[in-house]
């Protein structure tokens, strides 16, 4: 019996030791993605792909400043040190390329390499054209018309029309090494295995769907961003409970998007729950199509006044920021809207009555929702909560639940399309990091489907005029003022049901130190260390 | 026997054709666009049309099917839309991982199932029977993904004895039969074994009870055969059916369990299928379903042949 107990104890000790025996300085991250993002340059998997593969192994001409957590991120020079637009021809841009930058394979980064990378995405008959990267990258740079290298360090881009948002678009485009592609037999499949960018991390090992391993690029051009860690390992863990279990059992040191109901237990286990505001919006995108009850601003305002955002926050364990507008509170484009999103049922009922709704003519409409989806937080309980809120104001909402990918297709097709099934709104989550994704794609007249993703067919001459102004205002500060005015109009006209912003939650082992969570979809991992 | 095997092999051809048609049609009539998960949501209608053309989804369905079958017959299952990697390579890796998991789970399930089944059948209506039956009913009834989560909470999170996810510190590419890796296999295998354990136990219990009530057993006992001798006869008579059931269970498990492999992030065919479904990755989905279906057909054939060899009474040829 004694022997048995001893054996059991030894086994248990062995198991326990094996569980904690990992090297120092290695950060293991459990991602929500189900696969390692595309490694060839232009990653897939949306914002998460760009965060972990795009801006780690690669750089763009323009970067986001990810060094501060206390204010929204702005654009800064990346592989381009500066850019100017021609004083007479506002479509002609000149980019100065950073000197001395090398790809991981040792080849030099030049303006010709940028041209080669644009061709990779835009020129279908170019030998390096890659349909997988093109499908990710082409829609990010709609403004780019033609481009050429004037010399090794000067690049010219001519846009299709004057467009001051070009730098935002270029912040998406990752630069792959032409030399490495040629060396590997001109094959993107081979390049994917041993990629080469100019980024602060080098990809050294990679098992599809299981893990990717990176080491610091000690020769990185921005010495302040050379990673302090020995290695970083990315592990796809799409199942939320599996991520929590992996963190709590010490298999990973960091998980993305822990479920709100897991946060208390993670905190109790000593984990850090890191949150911050970032340009995300969880909303009901309302239809402006003919016959939509939301065409009356009083109805839109009534709905916005009926939502109990504080109650919703409680439901989500505090992991949300109640909306005060479409942009998160404190955002540089927030401005000073006069319409306040406080809960005021009496005012909501009054507005509805003024709009002609009441016991004899009850308000009733249909909203499309999804049971899950990227950025959708906890869509079912959240929507049911709002449904209840609106019912208290006398608004009866019927839901039609459709699967997430189907919802995306409906969103692309537009509210007038038969696939929208007569719904007058849809619950959708938005990446709102730049002027285009934040406002234009939802509200510009000529972006109504099928030309774009203005699902609700909103069209307003004043709004369009302001969008033109944004595109033609090349001074960043002046452009921000215009964007403030756009946001003020958005909120005062209560264009959408503005509900909440996600807080970009991630749970970290107490051993992870030095992480600065920027108010951005992307993050910098250079400052992180792991304590023993 | 050879004629029988050849005949059965010939029968698999229409089955393979049927499977190919059904899996091709199923994945195409399912709602959702194969390019939805590949393209960013903002992709314009023009870009969508361009990409559809590049991927060949603009062609008539019958042409797409014909091309797919033609390539498949040449051993080329195409390239995954979502990852750009060859489907055959993805599948080979995942099949190897699922095979490890399924064989271990089947072994655990078969051994425990036979044990509980024999005990229950041998001591029918006793408390031992009730206990063994209770365990086997729990086995077939309990939702295995739930059991997986419970095991993770106990053995990974609370006790920190076994890892919660993955196929080893270096992933399945670095797999080795050492403790560092095998410990990753234990929780998913135990979770996966519960259903075959329950089914085998229920089958064996019924078989044993039936065999024990047959006249030849009474005759053997009357001739003075000891319990061990009787046991041998029971095992011999129960084995073919029990093996057939085990073979079928192995077939099911080889398909991988989407839920278990997702809970444990085990990189097998279930995990692969789950991802292919969510991403509408048609080539990956078609290839995986086809190969798994053919695996199942082959396994059925194998079980039939082995059963015929074990039980000469079974006349098949």
Describe this structure in words.
The complex is a heterodimer of chains A (532) and B (317). With 532 residues, chain A is of the alpha+beta class. Chain A has helices at 2-20, 46-57, 111-122, 131-137, 166-170, 178-183, 188-193, 240-248, 263-268, 297-306, 309-315, 345-354, 379-392, 404-413, 435-443, 461-472, 476-492, and strands spanning 26-31, 62-64, 75-77, 80-85, 92-97, 144-151, 154-159, 201-207, 211-216, 231-236, 254-256, 272-274, 280-286, 321-322, 363-369, 395-401, 425-431, 497-501, 506-508, 512-513, 529-530. In chain A, strands 8-9-10-1-11-19-12 form a 7-stranded mixed β-sheet, sandwiched between helices. A 6-stranded mixed β-sheet of chain A has the order 14-18-13-17-15-16, sandwiched between helices. A 4-stranded antiparallel β-sheet of chain A has the order 4-5-7-6, covered by helices on one side. In chain B, 74% of the residues lie in helices and 0% in strands. Chain B has helices at residues 2-29, 45-55, 61-73, 87-122, 127-141, 144-158, 179-212, 215-222, 227-254, 258-263, 269-279, 282-310. The model of chain B has no long low-confidence stretch (mean pLDDT 84). The interface between A and B is large, with 59 and 60 residues.
Concise synopsis of the structure shown:
The complex is a heterodimer of chains A (532) and B (317). Chain A is 32% helix and 20% strand.
What topology does this entry show?
The complex is a heterodimer of chains A (532) and B (317).
Chain A: H1 2-20, E1 26-31, H2 46-57, E2 62-64, E3 75-77, E4 80-85, E5 92-97, H3 111-122, H4 131-137, E6 144-151, E7 154-159, H5 166-170, H6 178-183, H7 188-193, E8 201-207, E9 211-216, E10 231-236, H8 240-248, E11 254-256, H9 263-268, E12 272-274, E13 280-286, H10 297-306, H11 309-315, E14 321-322, H12 345-354, E15 363-369, H13 379-392, E16 395-401, H14 404-413, E17 425-431, H15 435-443, H16 461-472, H17 476-492, E18 497-501, E19 506-508, E20 512-513, E21 529-530
Chain B: H1 2-29, H2 45-55, H3 61-73, H4 87-122, H5 127-141, H6 144-158, H7 179-212, H8 215-222, H9 227-254, H10 258-263, H11 269-279, H12 282-310
Helix pairs in contact in B: 1-12, 4-5, 4-7, 4-9, 4-11, 4-12, 5-7, 6-7, 7-9, 9-12, 11-12
